[in-house]
Structure formats: structure tokens, C-alpha cells
Write a structure and sequence with these properties.
The complex is a heterodimer of chains A (about 220) and B (about 250).
Chain A lengths: L4 H15 L10 H11 L3 H15 L13 H12 L7 H33 L1 H5 L3 H33 L6 H27 L3 H19 L1
Helix pairs in contact in A: 1-2, 1-7, 2-3, 2-4, 3-4, 3-5, 3-8, 4-5, 4-7, 5-7, 5-8, 8-9
Chain B lengths: L1 H11 L13 H12 L9 H10 L10 H13 L4 H41 L2 H30 L4 H4 L2 H29 L5 H21 L4 H20 L1
Helix pairs in contact in B: 1-2, 1-6, 2-3, 2-4, 4-5, 4-6, 5-6, 5-8, 9-10
Classes of the chains: A mainly alpha (about 220), B mainly alpha (about 250).
Chain lengths: ~220, ~250
């Protein structure tokens, strides 16, 4: 685990940058962030399970407009670090608690970066309005640097919290209950998101068709 | 101009780099616009170039991928010596439609559709395979939109509305919602079965009860509460109950 820390920090930084600031190719989606973090930490399956559960939570909310949304990608990285190499599947609930907490922290930290960006723009307003391309580029790249620092810091906090969560603090009862609750709450989030996305018209019919097809697939598989 | 277009395209990937509530995508738009303005009469030391960069940096909000349409169109308008007030009007007029189109086509269409397929493949094969499938499907649409938007904006300039009425976009809008709804619906039952696979019957009943409580909360009791808060609150309660139960 300790040998992988620099790589996990680097991956977390890329994931955090991808959320809004650089490219949005969606490596910040938890399915991707958690799976790759699992590979880095030597436990692809556990990382993938955490990523899948967090992806269900992420489907509850679409990043429409200037909405403030949790940083589920960084949450998935922290969750994967919590559960990687753990003895059995019961650690998933604890990992999801860590992941959701870090996702919330990541969302708040994004607002801080936005406020700092605004302050930077106000400081250089005259040069920007005059059309100085160097100032425009400098403000842009400082925005990238700020967000990279944010993502790296939140990842580091996530790794610390993960290390604490791996201590024998949780009873077996807590671990079992938390796994049950984490899976149930993630399915509720995805179903609610699906229903909201579908509205009440044609899309809802397609959503039901999909659910029936998915259920049929289980019966036949 | 080809080098300018390539530079501009790469800079569209940073269009939200200094996102803030004052100007939103304004600075990112000016930064992506700049390479296309370098060959304005007078060059990079000329007033037209500086004025155009300054205009481009004003408040602008749209979907980040669809902003490429505006960037190409604004650059073309500057090259065609459109009066400054026309350029400003064009930027303001494009913000709403580009935001709405992107929300429907990408955030409420491509993203959940690709996520649904990715989750399905994650269960069918491995989570990593699901992640790769998701990235490929999503970025096919994402990168195409950015590149096409920039070139269409440059081609049509002030008449960019023609590009936004293109049949392929209209078809995409018609298909995006149903595709997302179907893919999500298809993925959820297998994912649920996969996740509860190792759990005992009592625990599976518990999962179902928590899921029902979560849906009821989200739909009827406290719709603004959100999945994240519900998850955190429910996990905290589970931790305490589990500790006492032991």
C-alpha cells in the first residue's frame, strides 16, 4: 500500500482535475476512478466494487449547469484505498462511508477553488478587459494549478481517513449493517436518479423497458 | 489557420480552467478563442486582436462542450469585422441554447447512457472493462461534439443557428433521453444482483428495505435531501446501531 501512495496521489490529482477544470473526459466518474485506483493498489475487484457503488450514487445527480455536486471520483479513490486488500466483502460499507465523506469534502473544496478563481479574475480585471492574452492564459493556468492542489490535498486526506478506517474500530455488526445500508442506499440513489431523468413521459416507458430487459437477463443468465 | 484550429481545440479542453461565478466560462472562452484571432489585421499587436480577446473574456455561460460552437462562431464574426455590439449580442444569444442543448444531449443523455452500458459491462465482465467501455462510448460523443462544434462555428459564424438546427443534432436530441433511460434501466437489476451476491437472505431483505426507504425519501419525503446525504445519514445510523448491537 505505502509503495502505491505516490501513484494514488497522482491518480487522485488527475481525477480531481477532470471533474471540471481539465477536459472532462470523465475519468472522474467513480466507476473509472475506483477501478483504476483498485488496479494501482493491487486489488482491482474491490476498487471496482467501490467504484460501481459510488457510480450508483453519482447517477442521482447530473452535473447540469453550474450545479454544485460532490466529487465522487476522489471519493472512489479514497474508498478503494480503504477496502484494497481487506479480508472480505464486509469492508465495502466502511469504504463507502469514507468515500461519501471524501466526495462531500471534494464538493466543498471545489467551491473554495471557484471563489479563489473569482478573486484572481477581479485582481487582473483591467488587463483581462484590455485583452492581454498573457494575463488571460496566466489566470487560466493558475486555475489549473489551484485545482490540482485541491485534488491532491483531498486525495491525501482521503488516504489518511482510509488508513484510520482500516484500524479495527468497527465491530462485525457495524460492518455487516453498513454494507447492507451502503448497497441499499446506492440502489435507491440510482433508481431515484433514473426516475427523475425519465420524467413522466416517453423516457419513463423506456426506463421500464430497460428494467424489464435487465430482469429478464438475470433470469436467463 | 489549421494550427490555430488545433490550438483552439486543445484549449477548449481547458474552457472551465478558471471557472468562477463572476464570468463563468468567459476566461476559458477567450483563451480558446485567442489562437484563431492571431491573424486578424494588425496581428497580435493590433487593436482588433486585443479588443477581440477582451470581448471574448466577458461573462459567458454554456455547456462546456457546446461552448466550442460559440468559440468558432465568435472568431469568425471577428474575422468578418462584425460590429462589437453584434459580437456581444451573438455571445449572449448563444448562451441559453448551447446550455440547454448540452444539458439534454450530454448530461441527461450521453453520460447516463454510457454509464448504464459501463455498469452492465462491469457486471458482465470486470469493473475495469466496464470503465473502459464507458470512457470509449462517452468520449466518442464528447470529443466529436467539441471538434465539430468548433469547425461548424468557424464555418457559419453569425449564422451558427443553421448548425444548431442540423438534422444530426435533432436526431441526437430525440435519441439521447430514451437511450439513457433504457441503458440505466437495463443495468440496474444485474448490478443489484451482483452487489448482493455474497450477502445472506436477511441482509438482502435489509438492502431492499433501505432501498425502498431511500426512494420514498427522495421522491416524497425530502426530495432535496439527495442520495449523498441519505447515504451518509443511513451509514452513520448503521454504524451506531451495529456498535450497540455488538
Amino acid at each position: 500500500m505505502s509503495a502505491s501512495i505516490p501513484l494514488v496521489l497522482a491518480w487522485g490529482t488527475l481525477v480531481g482535475l477532470d471533474l471540471v477544470t481539465v477536459s472532462q473526459t470523465m475519468i472522474a466518474r467513480p466507476l473509472v476512478a475506483g477501478s483504476v485506483a483498485g488496479v494501482i493498489l493491487g486489488d482491482p475487484l474491490s476498487g471496482g466494487i467501490v467504484g460501481t457503488v459510488l457510480e450508483l450514487f453519482a447517477l442521482d445527480m447530473l452535473p447540469v449547469g453550474a450545479s454544485e455536486y460532490p466529487d465522487y471520483g476522489l471519493g472512489a479513490v479514497a474508498g478503494a484505498a480503504t477496502v484494497a486488500g481487506a479480508p472480505d466483502v464486509l469492508g465495502i460499507g466502511i469504504a463507502i462511508l469514507v468515500a461519501l465523506s471524501i466526495a462531500a469534502l471534494g464538493g466543498v473544496s471545489m467551491q473554495v477553488v471557484r471563489r479563489l478563481n473569482a478573486a484572481d479574475v477581479r485582481t487582473h480585471e483591467t488587463a483581462i478587459d484590455r485583452g492581454d492574452p498573457r494575463t488571460v492564459a496566466a489566470v487560466q493556468y493558475r486555475g489549473v494549478a489551484r485545482d490540482a492542489a485541491r485534488a491532491c490535498l483531498v486525495t491525501a486526506i482521503g488516504l489518511l481517513v482510509a488508513a484510520v478506517a482500516r484500524l479495527p474500530l468497527f465491530t462485525l455488526g457495524s460492518a455487516v449493517l453498513m454494507t447492507v445500508v451502503a448497497v441499499g442506499a446506492s440502489l435507491a440513489a440510482a433508481l431515484s436518479g433514473g426516475l427523475r431523468l425519465s420524467g413522466g413521459g416517453l423516457e419513463l416507458r423506456w426506463f421500464v423497458v430497460g428494467l424489464l430487459a435487465g430482469t429478464a437477463w438475470i433470469a436467463l443468465a | 489557420m489549421k494550427t490555430g484550429m488545433l490550438r483552439s481545440f486543445l484549449r477548449t479542453l481547458l474552457v472551465q480552467a478558471s471557472w468562477n461565478h463572476d464570468r463563468m466560462l468567459g476566461l476559458g472562452t477567450a483563451h480558446a478563442l485567442e489562437p484563431l484571432l492571431r491573424d486578424l489585421p494588425g496581428g497580435q499587436d493590433g487593436d482588433r486582436y486585443r479588443d477581440a480577446v477582451g470581448r471574448g473574456s466577458q461573462f459567458f455561460n454554456a455547456h462546456p462542450y457546446m461552448a466550442s460552437f460559440a468559440i468558432g462562431a465568435l472568431a469568425r464574426a471577428e474575422h468578418e469585422s462584425a460590429p462589437p455590439e453584434h459580437v456581444d449580442r451573438l455571445r449572449r444569444a448563444l448562451a441559453g441554447p448551447l446550455g440547454s442543448l448540452g444539458d439534454k444531449l450530454v448530461w441527461a443523455g450521453t453520460l447516463p447512457a454510457a454509464a448504464g452500458v459501463g455498469l452492465f459491462v462491469a457486471v458482465l465482465a470486470t469493473p475495469l472493462a466496464g470503465a473502459v467501455t464507458f470512457l470509449v462510448l462517452y468520449n466518442l460523443v464528447h470529443l466529436t461534439l467539441r471538434a465539430w462544434g468548433l469547425s461548424a462555428g468557424w464555418r457559419y459564424g453569425i449564422g451558427i443557428a443553421k448548425a444548431l438546427a442540423a438534422p444530426v443534432l435533432r436526431r441526437g436530441l430525440r435519441v439521447a433521453g430514451p437511450a439513457a433511460a433504457t441503458a440505466l434501466g437495463l443495468a440496474l437489476p444485474p448490478v443489484a444482483v451482483w452487489l448482493i451476491g455474497d450477502l445472506a437472505t436477511n441482509a438482502r431483505i435489509g438492502v431492499a428495505l433501505v432501498a425502498i426507504l431511500g426512494i420514498v425519501t427522495a421522491r416524497w419525503i425530502a426530495p432535496a435531501f439527495g442520495g449523498l446525504r441519505f447515504g451518509l445519514a443511513a451509514l452513520a445510523v448503521a454504524f451506531l446501531v451495529g456498535a450497540l448491537w455488538q
